[in-house]
Amino acid sequence: MSSSATWVLIGYFLLYATVVVAFVVWRRISRQDRKPFPDHLKLLRGPGETQRRLVAALDENLYQTLVVASLPPLLVAAALVSLALRLPPPALWFALTGTLGVFLAVLFLVARWLVAKITERQNRDLGCFGERVVAEFLEPLKTQGCRVFHDVPCGDAKSPFNIDHVVVGPGGVFAIETKTRRKGRSREGFAAHEIIYDGQVLAYPWGEDRHGLDQAQRQARWLEDTLASLLGRRTPVRPILTFPGWMIIRRGSGAVNVLNPREIPAAVAPALGSSPGPRGVSALDARECDLIARQLDARCRDVEY
Q1: 200 and 56 inside one domain
Q2: CB distance 279 to 257 below 8 Å
Q3: Is 218 in the same domain as 144?
Q4: Domain end: 131, 148, 176, which one?
Q5: What is the side-by-side order of every strand in the sheet holding 172-178?
Q6: What's the rounded mean pLDDT across residues 184-199?
Q7: From CA 57, how far away is CA 121, in angstroms rounded?
Q8: Which of 131, 156, 205, 222 is least buried, going by the fewest C-beta atoms within 10 A?
Q9: Do 55 and 185 belong to one domain?
Q10: 247-250 and 194-197 as β-strands: parallel, antiparallel, unpaired?
């Protein structure tokens, strides 16, 4: 391959990448001209809204991702071959062999990066679906005087996070963290579909950790402090950690209630007129529920086209 042919090939791929990126940018801009809704219209977040947005962003950038993934190996190979062809014959074969090695190394790194992007999309899509599963089990609570909010934005600009579900009702305020985990190989003595909770640690079929427990407790504490600063009255927020698709074996109790999604309604909505809830927390009246719900509604109403 001559030097001029090599640069023609490089120029072609650069032109191709530029056209694809320009087309995607034009599509994004043109969409803004076709909105049938008023600019101020904002909807409440649905379950898995954060994950849905991230999946949509990954899909939106699919063209750029494929172009970026395909260009480096070709550009590296074309440049090295162009340089190798200028060498005398004795050194030519060594140069071409080295070029092949560099090409394969770059190809491996790019392929690894592309697979990581695809895996990220799959994981986020699974997480979004898991939050939707939990949301369906929470839906009947609305008939019992509860307000349900999904994907509640929390934190600040430096450290933002979201609480997957918040339920406000006569039984109190509950912050629900959803963990959608795949099932894989299990250790001897552990069932592949069970998570064992002893009040301190979560034992999965493959190992133990406290990650979800600490996260659920930390997020509930943040919401409790935030509501207290806004309303001037401290209302305890009880953390719940849920695993859609898993059976939960409880062998102890702790600060976080670990449940299967179908167990949540019974834990969240005690019968009206019942005695105070866990830790002596009195049931909320309609006015208190409305005040808290208004604050959460303001946080969650940010979905726009």
Answers
A1: no
A2: no
A3: yes
A4: 131
A5: 147-155, 160-169, 172-178, 237-242, 257-259
A6: 91
A7: 10
A8: 156
A9: no
A10: parallel
Q: Count how many Cα atoms sit within 13 Å of the Cα of residue 261 in the half-sphere of its side chain.
A: 21
Percent of the chain topping pLDDT 90: 53
How many folded domains does the chain comprise? 2
Q: Is-contact 149 45, C-beta < 8 A?
A: yes
Q: How far apart are CA 163 and CA 153, in angstroms?
A: 7
Let me know whether 212 and 105 are in one domain.
Answer: no
178 pLDDT exceeds 90?
yes
- Residue with the larger pLDDT of the pair 162 and 66: 162
Same domain, 218 and 126: no
Query: Which residue type sits at 37?
Result: F
Supply the pTM of this predicted model.
0.79
Residues 6 or more apart whose Cβ sits within 8 Å of residue 227: 173, 234, 235, 237, 292, 295
Region of residue 43 (left: phi > 0; alpha: psi -120 to 50; beta: else): beta
Region of residue 260 (phi > 0: left; psi between -120 and 50: alpha; otherwise: beta): beta
Phi/psi-derived region of residue 169, left when phi > 0, alpha when psi is between -120 and 50, beta in every other case: beta
Residue type, 209: D
Q: Are residues 178 and 115 in the same domain?
A: no
Three-state DSSP class for residue 190: coil
Query: How many residues are present in the chain?
Result: 305
Asked if 283 and 151 sit in the same domain, the reply is yes
Cα separation, 238 vs 254, in Å, equals 11
Give me the domain span that covers residue 119. 3-131
B/e letters for 254-293, b = 16+ CB within 10 Å, e = fewer, are: bebbbbbbebbbebbbbeeeeeebeeeeebbeeebbebbb
Q: Where are the alpha helices (DSSP H) in the chain?
A: 3-31, 49-60, 62-84, 89-138, 211-231, 264-268, 286-300
In the block, residue with structure tokens 């959803």 = 178
Q: Which among 73, 100, 131 is the end of a domain? A: 131
Q: What is the dihedral of CA 256, 258, 262, 263, to 10 degrees?
A: -70
